[in-house]
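Final report, closing paragraph on structural work. Over the funding period we assembled a curated collection of sequence-structure pairs, and we close with a single example.
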Amino acid sequence: IQDHTPQEREIGVAGPELSSREKDYITGILCMTVFIQCFIVSQFPPFLTPLILYDFNYGKNVVGCILAIYPACAILAGYWSPWVLNNITKKNILLCSLVMQLLGAFGVGILTYITYDNDLLFLGLAFLFIALLGLGAGFAEAMVYTTISEVYPLEEVPSKLSSVQISFGLGMMMGPSLGAILHSLANFFAAFASGGTISLCLFVLTVMRFPNLPLNTSVRHSHKHTFKFFRSIPAIYGLSAACVVLAITAILMNFVTPLMMQEFDISQNSSALLICIQPFVYTIAYTPFASVVSQSERKWTFISVGILLQVIGLMFFLPPDEHEDYHVISPIFGFTVAAFQMIFISLAVIPTILEDVEDRFPDPPEEVLDGVTAMFVLSQNVGDVIGSILSGFLIDSMDYRGTYTTAAFVGFCFV
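Its predicted structure, as stored:
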């Protein structure tokens, strides 16, 4: 948005060429793209992790490394995105992303049919299909936000981005819930094939209804020259918080289904339904809290509150002692608290950094906004990679209680 002329900010870069119906199609397809990405990846913890652990008998360290492929490929896609946005039309980017999503979803589904003694084939295909999902999500994410800023006038952008965030919550909620139904009625393949089928339908809709938008060659090829604007305590704190939060979240979520199955005596499909609590609360509470955070003059406090809530949430997932009875209410509280942590971090980090930059540089260059968003997404993906890799090694060496206690201590020290 910062790159646009005053007239473009008034009507949107592509505003004059698009009808209101075409804009509605764009918004709907972009929201559905975010929905399907979250729909597929949200099925990893309840279904893919138990498959690798129990059916193929791999250790948790291997599971963590496999799951780290997704955010690692999203980082690569984010690095290439400026060049891609400059040289490929947004419709073609979206179509390629959807192809990656449907191939990845169907591919992950067929992992269950690989014979258990063929380790090399399983690991190779798992790497390939999860990498496809990560690359598709990374390219689409960059394209979604860029397209909304170009199509709509400045005052309409926040409401459209809120729709994207709601689609995120709905996808994270529908993935485990519908997956649990299909997993119980059919099998593992059916759960992931549902995501591939929706991607295929969205691909057809995109071909038919998504307009051909012009290339925007003003997209920056690099944000390296904006790093100097983030060399301050608020900026470093905000980006570090995003990294730490995603690392701790990955440590919890990657193995939360085996945890609930082993320690809380909850079935796999019931665990998947419990996981839906977090995105459900996120979807309901996001809009009311967005207005609260936006009106606050000390947004950085919400970052600290978010991490503190994450620490509290981890305590609800500590396995019961030998003399304690499990209570299903414990993970319910844990997922609810984690939802508010997600809300505070997603709403507070970028405004905190932007306000700090504006205080230190009265007239910052136009690309700073793009740089802040790119750095925030990069910090989240780096945290996801670190947390995914560490989760398996820590749980293998210290069990669940030791791992979650350590993660909570790290988060508390950060606060």
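Residues 74 and 138 are 4 Å apart (CA to CA). The first helix runs from residue 6 to 11. We thank the funder for supporting this effort.
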